[in-house]
């Protein structure tokens, strides 16, 4: 398991480390905090975008906050990934940026597809609860699926980058449409995101078992938040694709 890059980042210091070590409980509490911050900021962003929409009739605030939030989140994600020691600070700021992003894009989806936000939130919560129950029932599942999940995730990233290049040149990308292929691809990505939740739970358990430094609680909580937000966005896109076919 030491080959896992997230574990390896902290494990290199664990052998000579005499201070407080991370725990599952500590990581859980920090995850709740980060999710709470993201939720509160997303509500703030949502309301701000609504106020701007009704006062000006434009989506300028939504577009501005989504752009600002996505760029800020990307920068903070890179910093946190390369410098886990800074995760106590960077993960909180990351949660703020993601809140700005989630709130603004959720407003746009909600206006086009009324009721989509509640359905997306419930499905995301259901996925988190069920995968956690599955992992508690059989902790070995994380190790068994780890390699496959990593390959599948990298494949999705590769396909998404190709789609981005296509969009830059105005070329339709079949996986991004609301056709059956596009919906099937979204279902696949949602499944991969859900599988990543199980791997995240396994990372936390392994980190606690290896006695990694206390700051790694923030690092793994950050990793879990990234996956939850990814899952939320993918479910949002999947439901919108299906709804747009009606």
Automatic annotation (TrEMBL):
Any coiled-coil regions, as ranges: none
Stored Pfam families: BaxI_1
UniProt keyword list: Membrane, Transmembrane, Transmembrane helix
Organism per entry: Zhenhengia yiwuensis
The protein, known as: Bax inhibitor-1/YccA family protein
UniProt-listed InterPro entries: BaxI_1-like
Membrane spanning stretches: 32-54, 60-79, 91-109, 115-136, 148-174, 180-199, 219-239
Domain of life: Bacteria
């Amino acid at each position: 398991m030491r080959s896992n890059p997230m574990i390896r980042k902290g494990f290199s210091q664990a052998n000579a480390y005499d201070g407080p070590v991370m725990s599952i409980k500590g990581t859980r509490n920090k995850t709740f905090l980060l999710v709470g911050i993201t939720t509160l900021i997303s509500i703030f962003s949502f309301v701000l975008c609504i106020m701007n929409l009704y006062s000006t009739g434009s989506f300028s605030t939504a577009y501005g906050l989504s752009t600002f939030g996505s760029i800020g989140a990307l920068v903070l994600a890179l910093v946190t990934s390369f410098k886990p020691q800074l995760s106590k600070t960077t993960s909180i700021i990351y949660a703020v940026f993601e809140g700005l992003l989630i709130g603004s894009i959720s407003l746009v989806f909600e206006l086009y597809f009324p009721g989509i936000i509640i359905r997306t939130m419930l499905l995301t919560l259901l996925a988190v609860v069920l995968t956690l129950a599955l992992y508690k029932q059989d902790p070995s599942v994380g190790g068994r699926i780890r390699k496959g999940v990593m390959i599948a995730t990298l494949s999705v990233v590769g396909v998404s980058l190709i789609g981005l290049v296509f969009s830059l040149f105005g070329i339709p990308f079949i996986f991004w449409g609301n056709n059956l292929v596009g919906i099937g691809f979204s279902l696949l990505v949602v499944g991969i995101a859900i599988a990543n939740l199980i791997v995240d739970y396994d990372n936390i358990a392994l980190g606690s078992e290896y006695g990694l430094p206390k700051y790694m609680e923030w690092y793994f909580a950050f990793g879990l938040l990234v996956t939850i937000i990814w899952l939320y966005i993918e479910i949002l896109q999947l439901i919108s694709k299906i709804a747009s076919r009606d």
